[in-house]
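Exam prep: given the inputs below (a chain plus alpha-D-glucopyranose), describe the expected output before reading on.
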Amino acid sequence: MIWFLLTDPVPAFLHIKEKIYAKIQSAKGGLMSIYKKFAAGITVLLLFLACSREGANGDIITITYSHSVDPTGATAALIKAFEKKHPHIKVKFLEKPSDTGMQHDFYVTAFNGKSDEIDVLDIDVIWPPEFSQAGYLLPLNRFIAKDDFDISIYNQGALDAAAFRGKIWAIPKFIDAGLLFYRKDIVKKPPRSWDELIKMGRKYQQRPDIKYGYLMQAKQYEGLVCNAVEFVASYGGGFINGKGEIIIDSKESIKGLQKLVEIATSDIVPANINNFTEVESHTAYIQGQAVFIRNWPYQYALANNKRQSKIAGKTGVAPLPAGDAGSAAALGGWLCAINKYSRHPLAAWEFLQFVTGMQGQKISALKSSSPPTIPALFKDKDILQANPFFAEKGLQHGLSAAVARPKAANYQEISDIIQIHLSKAISGEETAAEAVDKMARQMKKAMRR
Ligand code: GLC
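Solution:
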């Protein structure tokens, strides 16, 4: 009977099923005594009876979807399209700060307090190990089985990020990779190396309409780690390898870090670049102040959004400049997950399926140039027309070769260590070699814990 209710999402019964499902979820959590199971069974029955009137009336369920401030309008479009298809579910958008670290801290506080305020949330590709271990998310395996949800259509790398200890905790929404965006009305050929970038930045900065040669993210936060991953990898270095070994302490990594510091303290970036996250840098870029910017793919849609950008139609896309070992992009991206304490897990699952499915990812790709996690969508004509750079080998290669950050349940601790010493290197408190040495020691300790 219960399974019948769970497998047939008739809108009028969603309320009843939500409550039964929530009960089952909390009941299956441990070695429940027979008494508890019996009590839970009675509760389910009571809930069923109590809710049947409400469900039969076909009440509208409201769920809350939380993710970062969206300057592209993609979220509003996603919600509108979903609500049209599912008139019995309304979605409220809860905006979080764009800084991923701030979002992380908000969720940790909320979920530690067992908050049910949020039903569905976007999670950064670096969070699944921590969030799943901490018990914040609902494992999706049962939903996937229940609906024969085809996960084979997803990019394997993106799916790997969603899995931890044999369970799937989220479905990939889009992939990110660091790219160089440039003013194609000013620059004929984008720079191939970091040194060339410095030279070209300086040259174009002489123009009266250009204030900055280059924009990056150098504030002490996760985005700085991504910028550093790119510099370090472009010189052949790395932070942690696939086996979890700390490899930052190398000549190559020091060289990469020195180049980051050289650029972040140069005259081609704003003097207060150590306050710049994605928001500050994309805002200056779309106001036409800079000739080059390192950012994630959403920059393209935003730069071409006539309502917000002063430079619509003027942006080219290229791989980031190379160091001694070539060009490297940091791998980023977001996945969609369900709060374990959601009171509407079935409605949440409906929404999650939509956002991460073909139609949802198409909306995101059109509105925010977010690269899909469903490879088939890279052949979609509308998507390619809106994002011609998706067809370029550079982007495909960039996405498949992008450098991942370590997959660790204590990633946040590791990232904090990296952030602190990167900042000290930029402010001149530590040399690149000292910063690398300190990072290596502290990261080794953190990995042992
Ligand atoms: C982007 C990436 C994410 C990364 C963040 C850093 O949102 O998708 O993975 O952690 O930027 O600022």
